[in-house]
Design goal:
Shape: globular
Low-confidence stretches: none
CATH class of the largest domain: Mainly Alpha
CATH topology of the largest domain: hpI Integrase, Chain A
Strand content: under 5%
CATH superfamily of the largest domain: Intergrase catalytic core
Helix content: 55-70%
Number of strands: 3
Radius of gyration: 23 Å
CATH architecture of the largest domain: Orthogonal Bundle
Number of domains: 2
Order of helices and strands: HHHHHHHEEEHHHHHH
Strand order of the largest sheet: 1-2-3
Structural class: mainly alpha
Length: 300
């Protein structure tokens, strides 16, 4: 089987069988298309370790980030492992391919005082009764209060939220469902939006949507709209040029740990498959603690 045909079949497998997130599928599709374009139209079994090394070297020369190179390495390793399972190849050429180490960068996190000021301002704006302001307040409270991903937020239907219990049922990566808690401020904001904000937005649509959060035309709100909202209100507070909804997830996790939450409990709330992914937030908390010490202690 030709390489391009095999990679297309593999990407379809990721989407339909493994049900990876759309973003991961797009990234792997792009990486493997680039591999096919670089190596050329050859049979899968003709691809060698040197071909893979040359492909990664070309990406390095273009200035691709180490995180991108690590993802590309993961993509080809997954592909060739699948190809061997499917008996398209006898030997896996990627077994000796070395992935570059990812540089550790601490996530962008807003302070507790900044988040309080931000959400107080959003609540004040929502008190006008404007449907969009009510929605935006509820979105921000839920992103911070539950620490969910933007895709999980946009995928919420009304029936997924239990205001009495203060929980939301979300569909995470790999189509894994989990129930996450949120606090009273988020519950109040969502309740106000459902009563006063959502009906006017829903009236603008030709077809009734089950979505919890609606856009200006009455359809399900999209990730781009949420990114724009968060960037407008959060970037000035954290001093970053570009910041998205994930910064609120980082902030929620860090504040949970700062408040004494157990690491494994935070892992379950965030829906991380690996505890190692959650541990990055312990580094953030340590950095914040060290910064406070340096500012406050006379012998620092």
């Amino acid at each position: 089987m030709e390489l391009s045909t095999a990679t297309s079949a593999f990407v379809d497998h990721l989407d339909r069988v493994r049900r990876l997130s759309p973003a991961t599928v797009r990234a792997y599709r792009s990486d493997l298309r680039d591999l096919s374009a670089t190596v050329g139209e050859v049979a899968v079994e003709q691809v060698t370790l040197e071909d893979l090394r040359d492909w990664l070297w070309a990406a390095t020369q273009r200035g691709d980030a180490r995180s991108t190179l690590a993802r590309r390495t993961a993509a080809v390793r997954s592909f060739f492992a699948w190809a061997q399972d499917e008996e398209l190849i006898a030997h896996d050429p990627s077994l000796r391919l070395v992935a570059p180490k990812r540089g550790r960068t601490l996530p962008t996190v807003a302070s507790k005082d900044s988040m309080t000021a931000l959400l107080d301002a959003q609540r004040a704006a929502a008190s006008s009764g404007d449907p969009a302001a009510l929605r935006d307040h509820a979105i921000l409270e839920l992103l911070y209060g539950a620490g969910i991903r933007v895709s999980e937020l946009c995928g919420l239907d009304i029936d997924d939220v239990d205001l009495d219990r203060g929980t939301a049922r979300v569909l995470g990566k790999g189509a894994k469902e989990r129930v996450v808690p949120f606090g009273t401020p988020a519950r109040d904001a969502i309740g106000a939006f459902l009563i006063r904000g959502r009906p006017p937005l829903a009236a603008r649509a030709a077809v009734t949507s089950p979505a919890l959060f609606l856009g200006v035309r009455g359809g399900r709100v999209g990730p781009r709209a949420v990114y724009t909202l968060v960037a407008q209100v959060l970037a000035p507070l954290v001093g970053a040029e570009t910041v998205g909804p994930h910064a609120l997830r980082h902030t929620a996790a860090t504040h949970l740990l700062d408040g004494g939450a157990d690491l494994r409990a935070v892992q379950e709330i965030l829906g991380h498959a690996s505890l190692g992914t959650t541990q990055i937030y312990t580094h953030v908390s340590s950095e914040r603690l060290a910064a406070t010490y340096r500012l406050a202690h006379p012998r620092a």
